[in-house]
Task: structure prediction
Amino acid sequence: MLSFENFKFIQADSKDLKNTIYQLRYKVYVEEFGFLKKEDNPDGYEKDEYDENSIHFAALDEKNEVIGTVRLVLNSEKGLPIEHVVNTKFIGDKPSSDKIAEISRLAVSRNFRRRKENGQFGVESYIKKSEGGILPNKRPASDQQQKRKKPVIILGLYQILYHASKRMGITHWYMITEEKLFHALKEYGFIFYQIGEPIQYHGTRTPYLGIILDIEQKLIKEKPEFLHMLLMGLEKKYHPNHPPIPQ
Result:
């Protein structure tokens, strides 16, 4: 378990916790945004064929209620979702399939997508355009904006996802997402490379590849304090090799 500000982030291993995650995904993907059809999810759970081959993560509030989730789809005989929806090009040497996983089904509860006064909990992926954004689309945020608009839940979910990936020996992440999330992650050193053309997939989405070694090296050079936070709770044997981080 990891803690980030007032939230906890855990790997979901129990059936009950996974069912709660599926219910949250249903609220977000089916009821609120209409990305998926109600008739395809009649029990109020949003599930698909990749869930059984995925690691699920949950963000918990102070009452231990699930308010956010993301999953890491592992390679199996089904392949990865990205392979069935878009043509992609790989960057660099492609490792064995067990070292590649796909980040997907990011969902944050409506009540935590944006703190009304400053928007710091969520990410603009889940905010209507008329409400404004959490982070600027392409231009860097000022120091004041960064402090006020840090997407805490997203960063916490990606932290625990990173830990699980390091422990499993995963070196590359696929991700299909909208441009806003790509830029929000980039602000904190999670660099992803575009590997295909945008498609209509739960809205307009672009395929990306994240190379964990590249992300680590960027953080070492440019954001050592954030790297220090990212590594908290991860066994030292999985830490990247780098000079000591200033305390």
Notes: Helices lie at 15-32, 110-113, 143-148, 152-168, 179-186, 212-222, 224-231. The domain at 2-238 is CATH 3.40.630.30 (Aminopeptidase).
